[in-house]
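Worked Example 4.2. Consider the chain below.
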Amino acid sequence: MIDLHVLRAGQGPRLLMLHGIGGSATAWNKQIERLAPDFTCMAPDLPGYGESPPAAEGSLAAILEPVAALIGNEPAHVLGVSFGALLALALARFHPQQVRSLVLADATLGRAHLSDGEQAQWLEKRRTLSESLQTISTQRAAEIAAPNAPAPIIDEIAQHMRRAHPAGYMAVAKAIADTDARPWLAAITQPALILCGEEDQVTGPAVSKTLAESLPCASLRTIPMAGHAPHIEQPDEFARMVRDFLLSAEAASRS
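Applying the procedure from the previous section yields the following structure tokens:
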């Protein structure tokens, strides 16, 4: 079992923050700053990202287990964006006792439902990206952000992306290619908030709508003027929605 590097800050109920395939723990900096007054924030570099060692293999289980070990015996609220949302769903599916609630932003549900040829094509594109992230991160960040996003936002997304290592990036890509979370959804009963950037062109609003319709206890909110990284693009609105939902979940659990 590998030990993950984790950014920790704050006080109160625990909030685990899971980044996407093109992110890292530092992608949560703005949200940690805003949410730490109310929550104990834990943002790990996933295996093969930032300061965390790589996983032994490129599978969802190999990424999931060190994250589950990080939570331990004290359940946490879980916030994930993109692949981080898929990982949060896997935690709720395979370690339900560890998950108090879910916030799923601009989620992917995996690509195992695609044909073999479509999966291979998608993986090959990810392989090309993994080998050139250091040089094309700004270009890729512009594709992730909303159209007309200001240059400082694009630069910030690119900076977090450059903390990914090729092996870690491809391990996540393989996990996405091999996973279809849709059969899990009906059995995931934790309260869930589904967030989607209004201008997300990476996973798109359709996936978020599927989550909202398929999870038993879910609500959907869109974030204006945001693409696939609303936690960075519109940090105040994102944090407000997350805080309101989590405080409501806390109140419900106490009653």
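The chain has one domain: 6-254. The longest helix spans residues 116-144. Compare this with Example 4.1 before moving on.
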